[in-house]
Amino acid sequence: MNALQKLRANLRLTWAITAKDVVDAVKNKNALANLVSTLFIMVLYAALPSLRGDTPLVIAYDLGDSALVEQMEESDSVRVYVGESRADMQAIVADMDEAALGLVLPPGLDSQVAAGEPVVLEGYLAYWVREGKAAETVAAVESAISALAGTPVRVDTEGNVVQAALESTGSAVLMSLSVGIVVTMLGVTILPHLMIEERETKTIDLLLVSPASIGEVVLGKALTGLFYCLIPVAALLAYYSTTIVHWGLAILAVVLGSLFTVGLGLLLGSILKVKQQLVLWGFVLMIVLMLPLMLVVISELLPEGLVEILRWVPTTALARAVTVSAVQSATIADVARELALLAGSAAAILAAVVWVVRRSDR
Amino acid sequence: MDRAIEAEGLTRDYDGLRAVDNVSFSVSPGEVFGYLGPNGAGKTTTIRMLTGQLRPTAGSARVAGCDVVTERDRLKPQIGVVFEHQNLYERLSARDNLSFTARLYGVDKSRVEAVLKQVGLLDRARDKVKKYSNGMKQRLLIARALLHEPQVLFLDEPTRGLDPNVARDIRGFVAELARQGVTVFLTTHYMEEADQLSHRVAIIDHGRIAAMGAPAALKKEHGGKANATLEDVFVNLTGKGLRERFAE
Prior knowledge:
heterodimer; A: alpha/beta; B: alpha/beta; 6-stranded mixed sheet; 4-stranded antiparallel sheet; globular
């Protein structure tokens, strides 16, 4: 058998196992229920911002100590934060997880208002805010401020798009947290069953006497795991499609990150004897992988050494890589360490699964 | 190939306990070889070593001309196994189970229909396996093991727990396979079945072969009475410990 024939045989065997597992998953009510629950949580999560109400949010940069800021602060029709500089105002706009309108209040605004002259303010919106939402936000702010000022106020946002910076939080961070949580949850709660069931039903014996090698069995199962993870992650990325700037990076990161959690799930399923043990170990692993995800969001409050350690946890590396996919100025070099960490840990974990399964003949 | 199966000093330890102890035998192509023994005697462990699932602690074995340790990749397409447990994908249909196996072995899909017909499951091929009776599942297991037309077939207690009609069907399959020249390595607790199907049998006790030969010869040598059955031979050779315990 030459190399090409061998490769074709490898692919055939790997695909046979993946296809069987996918068909089996579609017919597995428990797996479907888990997948639907995950999608439901995501939909609920996506709907959360609407629960905040539709009061528009303004980030003001006040150059002239305008009374309008105080009026806005006291008003119920608009929420307002004040930036200390133009850059600060733009950074806050970028850090928000909702469509916030950055406003520059020029010197002499109060006298313009007092004279009843129409006012045009310079406005800024984050790059990811969809066109419809942008128009809606601007209109709501114009209406609220016009009422407060007693004179027509127009906000001009033409060309004023705020890009995310490497250190930005906001929508990109929410997206990356969601991706991290979803792939971790699926990885350690559902995917171990791919191995546990094969062992419990002894169908693993069929695979081990078949022409498929252990590597092909594990790879086939890893591809099934990717199928499980990438369905909800694809829905998430679609939801955050305007946030992502570098799609290639985002996809590479979620594939590598999913492979890591898939591998972890398969390893757990290969080591654990019965399903009941999964509840405990799945929970422990979720804490170990999700807590760092949450902690790096508040990294400014943590000791630098701890933050550095947390960054070596693969799920935080995944979150960081996904976050950076939203930064226009970023290059692959900005997340080279994270991508290498994800690829390396995924490969190591999958190799460990092969080793554990192979040990069963010793 | 002179020998379909050849085991030489095959030994397997589990955590310091010897499950199979220096077992040697050979099986000719087309022969039905009965491998009999009480529970825990080492039958399944022997099958697991011969099918490449378990490494021997010592000794060696060749099946279909392939070393079971160093030539596993070549060995796998040559053997079919009906396992002790009904290890089927229960949420899948019989056809899906066989189609999966066909893909693993690179077998044409037309074989799926052929073996379904052969074991009489064509009418129920679309049903989920979990709706099948034990007998139907066992027939499906045999169909799966035959799908790629192996040279050597391992049957680990293929009629255990089946009603007499289904068990008879399965014995019929085995006899037919033997007529077609397939080598069959059969473990069973049913002595009559072993007597009826096997050209030769080996009786294993505590991991060691206690006797081996044609059923008629064993009955003559170890039966202990005229018109002895294979069951008499089995009890004489393996029941000593039990009898002593009851006598106490």
